[in-house]
């Protein structure tokens, strides 16, 4: 296979950027993850009321933005991008990040282009939002579709099998990751449309589970692993990478394997 599974070392996926030490899903967070040397920066997608893809985990603005209540509280999909851009996306985390804004996915592509790898999550997609179509249109606009197919420069992940199947129907060559903890018996079925699985990490994600995925040519990238002990347990199970808020911790642990 041509994907990063051929890489010498497990992949470091910067969950929401370097979100352990920076406000999640901001340029500050992504910039720092890239500086640290993460292999991928992760984006969660939400859609604004005027149809723009933005990088935000929650369906509401309440936890990670501050500003005028009319603009900066409530559901993301009830606010225009202009409203959301009035909010600080950093002050909730630290006063020094007050000028951080909620980035659009397009702004990320403009900022980093093809110099980084993206691990993009369609989050709670409502078919009426056409999130998948918008995502693929942006990949084309920034010449990332071919790089995604050939080099896995963009991985698309979702808890929603329907969302992944929607993408797969539009372009079966795109590399997709199903988020979830399927039973051993059902793991092989995900190879129909996905190249990997992103399980919540726990004791069930052991060598047997990982080997079963590998037997179906599915990579395994568990989330979200923030302690050395759990990183070591995941590596011992044979995972191909993992999501972490602390890329530096994982890169340090991988040491020479990452050099
Ligand atoms: O994609 C891995 C992880 O990001 C899934 O959980 O809720 O942090 O998006 P969440
Ligand atoms: Mg996510």
Describe it.
By secondary structure, the protein is α/β, with parallel strands linked by helices. The protein has helices at about 25-35, 70, 80-85, 105-110, 130-140, 145-150, 160-170, 205-215, 230-235, 245-255; strands at about 10-15, 40-45, 55, 120, 155-160, 175-180, 195-200, 220, 240-245. Strands 1, 2, 3, 4, 5, 6, 7, 8 and 9 form a nine-stranded mixed beta sheet that branches. Strand 5 (about 155-160), helix 7 and strand 6 (about 175-180) form a beta-alpha-beta unit. About 45% of the residues are buried. The mean pLDDT is about 95. The structure holds SN-glycerol-3-phosphate and magnesium ion (MG). Magnesium ion binds near residues 42, 44 and 121. This is Glycerophosphodiester phosphodiesterase. Keywords: Signal. GO terms for molecular function: phosphoric diester hydrolase activity.
């Amino acid at each position: 296979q041509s994907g990063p599974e051929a890489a010498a070392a497990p992949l470091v996926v910067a969950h929401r950027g370097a979100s352990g030490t920076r406000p999640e899903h901001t340029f500050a967070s992504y910039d720092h993850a890239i500086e640290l040397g993460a292999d991928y920066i992760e984006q969660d997608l939400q859609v604004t009321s005027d149809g723009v893809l933005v990088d935000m985990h929650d369906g509401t603005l309440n936890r990670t933005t501050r500003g005028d209540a009319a603009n900066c509280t409530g559901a993301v999909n009830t606010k225009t991008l202009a409203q959301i851009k009035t909010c600080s996306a950093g002050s909730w985390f630290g006063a020094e990040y007050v000028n951080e804004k909620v980035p659009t996915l397009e702004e990320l592509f403009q900022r980093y282009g093809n110099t980084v790898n993206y691990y993009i999550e369609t989050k709670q997609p409502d078919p009426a939002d056409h999130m998948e179509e918008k995502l693929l249109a942006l990949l084309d606009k920034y010449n990332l579709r071919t790089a995604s197919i050939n080099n896995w420069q963009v991985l698309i992940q979702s808890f929603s099998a329907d969302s992944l199947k929607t993408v797969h129907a539009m372009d079966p060559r795109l590399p997709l990751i199903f988020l979830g903890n399927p039973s051993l018996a059902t793991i092989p079925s995900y190879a129909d449309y996905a190249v990997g699985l992103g399980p919540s990490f726990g004791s069930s994600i052991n060598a047997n589970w990982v080997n079963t995925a590998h037997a179906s040519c599915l990579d395994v990238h568990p989330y979200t692993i923030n302690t050395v002990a759990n990183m070591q347990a995941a590596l011992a199970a044979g995972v191909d990478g993992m999501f972490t808020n602390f890329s530096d911790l994982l890169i340090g642990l991988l040491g020479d394997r990452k050099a």
